[in-house]
Structure formats: C-alpha cells, structure tokens
Amino acid sequence: MRAVNSEPASRQAGIWRRKASSMASETGGTPTAGERSAERRARRRTRARWVRLAPHGRRRRPYGAVTAPHYDEAYARLREPSGDAGLYLALARERGGPVLELGCGTGRVLLPIARAGIACTGLDLSPHMLDALRAKGPPASLHLVQGRMQDFDLGAERFALVTAPFRAFQHLYTVEDQLACLARVRRHLAPGGAFAFDVFKPRLERMALAEEPEQEDACWREGEDEIVRSAAVVRDHATQTMRVTMHYDRHRAGQRIARETADFRMRWFHRYELEHLLARAGFTQLTLYGDFDRSEYAADSPEMIYIAR
To answer: Long-range contacts of range 115-122, CB-CB < 8 Å, 24 or more positions apart?
Structure first.
C-alpha cells in the first residue's frame, strides 16, 4: 500500500506549481503541453492519496465495513420498490440454475433465489458484505466466494445464468476491466447460458452536473437511535465516472452522536457503448428492457437491463 504523503494537499499543489515554473525556466518559456499534463496528473495523484482520509487525518474504514451493517435497511427503502429482485428470481427459475451472481453483497437479490432451491454461487470483493450474508443462515446450496469480477476463476463450474444486479457492472471503471469481466462471464457460462445485468439509464441533464450537494435519501430506526443516510456526488466527465460519498449519521434524543462515511466510484454507460462492449466480448444475442417489469426500452425508461447470450 502506498504511504499517504504527510504534506498538506495545498502545499503539494504548490510544490508542483514551483516544479512547473522551474521546467519553464529550463526550457526558456511557458511549460509545454506535456509538462502541464504531468502537473495535472500529479495533482490528481495528490487528491487520490487524500480522498480516503477522514477528518483529522484518520483513515476511513473500507466501504464494505461501513455499509454492510446498514445495507439491508437502506435498500429495503431505496431499491426493493424497483422490483429488481423479482426479475432476477424469475430469470433463475426460467433457466433452472445453477446461478452465479457478481457483486452479491449481503444477498438481497441472491438469497431469495437460493431459498427457492436453486444452486447458487455469490461473488463479492468485500469480506464484510459476505459475512453479513452468512449471518442470515443461507441454505447449503449457496456457495460464497471472495474475489473480483474481472479475474475470478471458479474452475470447471459452469452456470446457466450469471447476473450482476443493482449496477454492479458500473464498478468497473475502465474498458480493460469491463472486457476482462465479460470474458470471465463467457468462460463460466454453460452452453445456452445467459448473462443478465442492469445499469442506470443516465439522465443527461443530471450527468451534466459536475457536483450534487449532500442530500438525505433514507432514514430508519435502530433501537432508540435514528440512522440518517445522505449522499453527495462529484462527477469526472473526462473519465465518465462519479464519486459517491455516503454519510451514515446516528441520532439519539435529537442529537447526532456519530457519523460514518463511505465512498465509492461508479462508471456510467450509454446504450450503444454497452452494446459495443458486449459485441466485442463475443455476445451475439441481446435483449434490452427499460424496467424490471420487462417493459420495452424507451426514452423515458429508468433502467437499462440486458440479457446477453
């Protein structure tokens, strides 16, 4: 792990400004395009080193460690109404299993499939999410694996259905990682098998915003406490990614007594960008839905749901 630089970010930026000035004096003029590019990269590296630090220099706990205890309560409110779990359960029943879910988290989508008697494997990078799933007492037919979507290897196992629900594929930021994941999926599909996944349909007026300020999006009771979740978004239009920062505030007797923070990145996709990726990966039959009721994709659809063969 790279050590966090002890210099304040503002001082680091100043150092790089002085280096750029020095480079300019050595070349006898203003910095070249290459030198300006190097300076921008250095500033991004400095910001990246600091982004995982909490106030007062404390390193934040990993996303999964912060989020896993709250995940089911938050998404029972924010995601269950979409009907996504019902669609993936129906697809699993139609195809008969076995099923592999990428990014299975706490099992919100996968556990109902396993409890329906279908053999399942769940893959997730976070040990905290997998521990939360195990604590629910899943059936013996559910096998859990810690690993990454872009390089997992389950040996000779093949699946009638591979899924990546709730925008898991959007946590792959580069084309290289996206194609690597799709190659892994194709390798693990049984003959005639299908890959089903969803991403949000980008609303252009919202994607155009560089930032969205912190807003509360869910709250629930936990004993005598109230948990309030809020989220803020910063977008990088050059890389088509967004950083989401979530705060979990614990309130008791009207006072905030604790705050935990988790952040993660997401890549947003447009329709034909995804279809080009799937074609490059060797998928030849695509079905696209606009919502979890299998409605036809349209301009006002909230989702892009693909079934690829």
So the answer is: 115/139, 116/89, 116/92, 117/141, 118/92, 118/93, 121/145, 121/154, 121/157, 121/159
pLDDT mean over 25-54: 46
What pLDDT, on a 0 to 100 scale, did the predictor assign at position 37? 57
Average per-residue pLDDT in the chain? 87
Q: Could you give the 3-state DSSP secondary structure of residue 220? A: strand
Do 279 and 193 belong together in one domain? yes
- pLDDT value of residue 60: 76
Q: What gap in Å lies between CA 90 and CA 165, rounded to an integer?
A: 13
CA within 13 Å, CB half, 90: 9
Residues 179 and 280 sit within 8 Å (Cβ to Cβ): yes
Residue whose structure tokens are 């990966």: 281
Same structural domain, 226 and 127: no
Regarding whether 35 and 131 lie in a shared domain, the answer is: no
Residue 15: its pLDDT value, please? 35
